[in-house]
């Protein structure tokens, strides 16, 4: 340590301070919920992001050495592999590791920020920027404790990329060539979608070289090794190519071949795919449509999942600004600071891809805002340090000003953290029922639920699912939507059909792959294959046939239905995916579903909110200006043995609207007859099930599991 310069010692100190601050802020959530049993399972807090259970499943299977065929367990993906390594070498429980990984890995972002500032001889700017970036709203939201997802390193890697580019351009040292390449290799291993951002960096460096430094041979070395590291080939091949090219670039006798290598890398880029993965990744966000049409086969129309994903929608400016900087004023000042910083240090122009991707959030969805966070944090930090230095040279006043201004920009973000009491994905009762199912169901059995719950179900019950966070296109979602929101008879038949068709397609694909000359398979959606196999040319006719006694495929495995109470909150969204004419794309009239938990009764009139009121004396429900008689009034309540008691009063059989009062949930439902008869309402809300089709398996007020008999 004595051999280190004072600048290096200060750099290490600032990194330690910023890292500790970032970790401490993320521990506020743990402090707030300390001892709160509903969020804990097996003595540890559960995670609070659905996708985290995907990576956890993969890590679990890596450690156990068991993963059945076609279970979609991500045993080959980086997040699961890194988690398994940590779980193997660290003396902590698996649950603790997946809970806290995001805290420590995301906090690494402070390192490249401070190292970039060191290059500018402004370490105080680096410290201020690191403190702000590490806890800014969007970055905190996607890297908080329990947010176990790839986001914990998705900004760290590009920031190290930016640091190595800046230091490489400014020093022309060969070591930064290999550092840049290693960062790309690791980034692609961690997050394959990094392709677009990598290419943006490459394009800016190329533009910078042409405009400002086209005679500098080092820049072409940098461009060549970046392109070789990012070409669309297997990772091990890219590693070998990078090492080989790096060796050539460090040897004087090969300098005359730099331009040839650069040209070859460009050719290799286009040969291996070029822009294809970049465009494919972005167009789903930028050009999302309500209805997606399969132009082959029957030309079926499906509802687009992108219309229901909040992170892919447009956001207001204030939300956009707050997520990037914590406050609109901070955001505007950050932009000013960045422009000034880039004017003084034009290498900061290389950060434009991250700002551009962050600004894409304004149109393409809030998930992108995290990319702009560290860059604009550097902008406001530069503004603070530069303006303060111009006002005074006195150290005590300068550092006091730094401190107070830093507190001012940190405070809105701290308040957000303090108020952001996000719950775990499942509560303990929901998890207990899935944990019990693991001992009942076979690993080849299926559990049908909405895609939001797919990953947690697979993790806790070790079963298969039809849809999940990575498999929920419109064609995939149609079937679970149809099952959950149609009658028990239709749902039961569709469940058996879809599971057996799913498994049969796995078999066909496997057998075809084993052929000496594999054929081109024209497999469309399951629902289309069913339509054609049953002799129909119109899928609507096939769906109607589910109300008749059609012959079903041979049963090869059991099927379970996971019906959580919380799905009531998204029932209309679930219904959207099957509320469509698959042949022509027309959206059917939306079934009526209204839920109220904030109601008030006065003079025998119950105001449910949003213009809906209930008068049981007159046996009517008023929806806006429409007065509608009530078909039936149903009251549900649990007795002392936690058995559901259902009392029903028929009021006006000619009406199409019923009311359900769920006493223990403090919830009132107003719904039409189709919704009332749906599988979800009948089995979860009322526990009324056709004993020829279903049997009860596990029950508690939070979730209910049934088994299909046919």
Helix and strand arrangement:
Elements: H1 6-26, H2 28-32, E1 40-41, E2 44-45, H3 52-64, H4 78-89, H5 94-106, H6 110-119, H7 123-135, H8 137-141, H9 151-154, H10 156-171, H11 175-190, H12 195-212, H13 217-230, H14 235-250, H15 258-271, H16 276-286, E3 291-293, E4 301-303, H17 317-325, H18 328-344, H19 352-359, H20 361-364, H21 373-391, H22 395-419, H23 428-437, E5 446-448, H24 454-461, E6 464-465, H25 474-485, H26 488-513, H27 526-533, H28 539-545, E7 559-564, H29 571-576, E8 593-596, E9 600-602, E10 605-609, E11 612-615, E12 620-623, E13 626-629, E14 632-638, E15 644-650, E16 657-662, E17 667-672, H30 673-676, H31 679-685, E18 694-700, E19 703-708
Parallel strand pairs: 5-6, 5-7, 14-16
Antiparallel strand pairs: 1-2, 3-4, 7-19, 8-17, 9-10, 10-11, 11-12, 12-13, 14-15, 16-17, 18-19
Helix pairs in contact: 1-6, 1-7, 3-4, 3-24, 6-7, 6-10, 7-21, 7-22, 10-11, 11-13, 11-14, 12-13, 12-19, 13-14, 13-15, 17-18, 18-21, 21-22, 25-26, 26-27, 27-28
